[in-house]
Specification:
Blueprint: E1 3-9, H1 12-22, E2 25-29, E3 33-38, E4 47-54, H2 57-67, E5 70-81, E6 92-94, E7 97-100, E8 108-109, H3 120-123, E9 125-127, E10 130-133, E11 147-149, H4 152-159, E12 169-175, H5 181-194
Parallel strand pairs: 1-4, 1-5, 5-12, 6-9, 7-10, 10-11
Antiparallel strand pairs: 2-3, 3-4, 5-11, 6-12, 7-8
Length: 195
Amino acid sequence: MKLNKIIFTSNKVLSNKLVTNFNFTKIKSEDFFEIYEWNRELYKDEENIVFVYFNDFSKSFSFIEEHYDIFKIIFVWFAEVMWNTELVGWDVIIPNTFITSKNSKKPIFVDYAVWEDYDLNDFWLVLNWICFTWEVENEYPEFLADIKDNEIYNLLEETQKKQKYEEIIVVIKLIKKDDNSQTSENIIKVLDLVL
């Protein structure tokens, strides 16, 4: 049985770059999602990389669950700097704490494996920070968060309804910048490591 590693994004610019860089092959196109696959030569008998560009996460996730045994789930897209002045436009963040302002919503914590060979400076990679998902675009959390976005908390909440996925999720965030060319190169390097 192959290990299916599933990458999700809702960002079309990033989607196009990943499809081109990793030479994904489109296998399905629906109104609400597109599914691509890539069998890495080195591991072609052992793993299958599945890339999902979605407009509707619920529908795309249902399709993936129905057709694949999931080994790892990776969420990838942009975020904005919030309070952390150390972050700059080419940084790649793997946050582990996710908060939202919605009433009675508890923080979501994501554990992930950190490989010993990482030289974080080579990949502009930052680990273990807090991501805030807003309900209203200009709102702020009750306590400090490093970055913010508009959807990851909701996606994690939906994914973690089934406890079997809790320990196989990785979230990769790119700090937004006017020119995302360098940022895209960095995320591709980090994604290649995580895969």
